[in-house]
Amino acid sequence: MKVLVIGSGAREHALCRSLSLDPDVSALHCAPGNAGTAEVAQSHAVDVLDGPAVAELAASLGVGLVVVGPEAPLVAGVADAVRARGIPAFGPSAEAARIEGSKAFAKEIMAAAGVPTARSYVCHTPAEIDAALDAFGPPYVVKDDGLAAGKGVVVTEDAEVARAHALSCQRVVIEEYLDGPEVSLFAVTDGETVVPLQPAQDFKRAYDGDEGPNTGGMGAYSPLPWADPKLVDEVLATVLQPTVDELRRRGTPFTGLLYAGLAITSRGVRVIEFNARFGDPETQVVLARLKTPLAGFLLAAATGRLDGEPALRWREGAAVTVVIAAHDYPATPRTGDPVTGLAEVAEQDAPDAYVLHAGTKRDEATGEIVSAGGRVLSVTATGSDLTKARARAYRAVARIGLEGSHHRTDIAARVAEG
Ligand code: AMP
Ligand code: GLY
Fold first, then answer.
1. What distance in angstroms lies between residue 149's CA and the mean position of ligand 2's atoms?
2. What are the structural domains of the chain?
3. Helix, strand or coil for residue 343?
4. I need a labelling partner for 62 at 20 to 30 A (CA). Which of 103, 134, 205, 312 fits?
5. Which bound ligand lies closest to the C-alpha atom of 183?
6. How far, rounded to the nearest angstrom, does the alpha carbon of residue 23 sit from its chain's CA centroid?
7. Could you give the 3-state DSSP secondary structure of residue 416?
8. What is the C-alpha separation between 106 and 93, in angstroms, rounded?
């Protein structure tokens, strides 16, 4: 099977890496890709938001499956355009991707499906904003309604900061604060059958100790030894299946990856958000543990055949990933800095630790790999337990050079200590 992956982050590098290890994959393409995907997949320049252009590329390459990584192309209808060309696409329609594209729409689906989530108000005027902030009290949770790459959410004790963020949004959702640890649970679905993957935890704040601004995610680990072993079954029954059923009932079935961002609160599991695609950086650790070949599984979802698929197989042990971010990420990341140490990791740490590229490219003139985005690398490692995986990940991180970069030093630290 020939496969085309759309996107250019560490998630896409992780997808390409897993697909490249699948014996059923005869050719692998990535558009636009990055310096890391280029090692395992052929890169193609394309405007990822242009559905007809992506469909044309897929047709000209003769691929049997297109995997759309990021949310923006999904919300723009790229999976629809590919399917309209008669090519299987892993990823929801623009209609179904609204579950991520609009927080208000996600709340509406959850209400209709009886899925537990934070109580919330959608506000349109300053008076409504003040009323909602007063109703919930601190800590305030204020969310831009539209896509914001994980950066549209402000959680603060400060009413003025909350109010200012709310006023800066076109449409804003203000909601109840959820306490308790967060879990990311992914499920692959063909619109009917729902197959949950292994849960992971992401670290959203920029700095150690969960300080600093929200980011797209600074690191992740899986599995979650502290989680109730029944968690996945419970979330499948109370969150994932009802949501997939509700979207199908509305005539907008969701095929692809449904990502539930959950809070395990003192009053039970609550949905913080849905995403319509693989999470980044959680994908890096979940796919590191998946033994089942990826291409056939994603194709089964894309073609409505998940029901007959054998159960997923998982590796024993654990995986940890640490994101190396550019100078001043997430505010105004600097690009164009050379990345060093990649060959050392490949020589000394592989296959237990490896570097997945996010914002990188090869400098045409010098041939060097340079930074080209906010999150630059996602250093991923596996081990028989979280302590070993974590040690390997940080050993590899220490070999990488990127001027002005920062990374968290506490990814999976507390859980590894037990
Ligand atoms: P979101 O983009 O909705 O995932 O929000 C980004 C991050 O903000 C989440 O991962 C949480 O850490 C935090 N957050 C969002 N909603 C809530 C909430 N209702 N209560 C507490 N924290 C929240
Ligand atoms: N890691 C959070 C996300 O992918 O949205």
1. 8
2. 2-90 (3.40.50.20), 119-175 (3.30.1490.20), 182-308 (3.30.470.20), 318-416 (3.90.600.10)
3. helix
4. 312
5. 1
6. 25
7. helix
8. 15
Instruction: Tell me which long-range contacts 327-333 makes (C-beta under 8 A, separation of at least 24).
Output: 327/403, 327/404, 327/405, 327/406, 328/404, 329/206, 329/215, 329/374, 329/375, 329/406, 330/151, 330/206, 330/213, 330/214, 330/215, 330/216, 330/374, 331/213, 333/359, 333/371, 333/373, 333/374
Cα(236) to centroid(ligand 1), Å: 21
Tell me the pLDDT tens digit for each residue of 346-393: 999 999 999 999 999 999 899 999 999 999 999 999 999 999 999 999
Residue 391's identity, in one-letter code, is: A
**Are β-strands 318-325 and 353-357 bridged in parallel, bridged antiparallel, or unpaired?**
unpaired
**Per-residue pLDDT averaged across 95-110, rounded?**
94
Give the predicted TM-score (pTM) of the model.
0.94
Give the 3-state secondary structure percentages of the chain, helix then strand then coil, rounded to 5.
35, 30, 40
- 359 near 373, Cβ under 8 Å? yes
Closest ligand 2 atom to Cα of 273: 5
100 C-alpha to ligand 1 centroid (Å): 13
Q: Residues of the chain with pLDDT > 70: what percent?
A: 99
The pair of three-digit structure tokens given for residue 80, joined into one six-digit string = 């629809």
Phi/psi of residue 377, each to 5°? -140, 155
Residue 147 · residue 75 · CB < 8 Å: yes
Burial of 32 (0-12, 13-18, 19+ CB in 10 A): middle
Q: Are 361 and 353 in contact (CB under 8 A)?
A: no
Are 53 and 37 spatial neighbours (Cβ–Cβ below 8 Å)? no
Convert the pLDDT of each residue in 223-263 to its tens digit: 999 999 999 999 999 999 999 999 999 999 999 999 999 99
**Strand ranges in 276-374 using DSSP code E only, listed in sequence order:** 318-325, 353-357, 360-362, 369-371
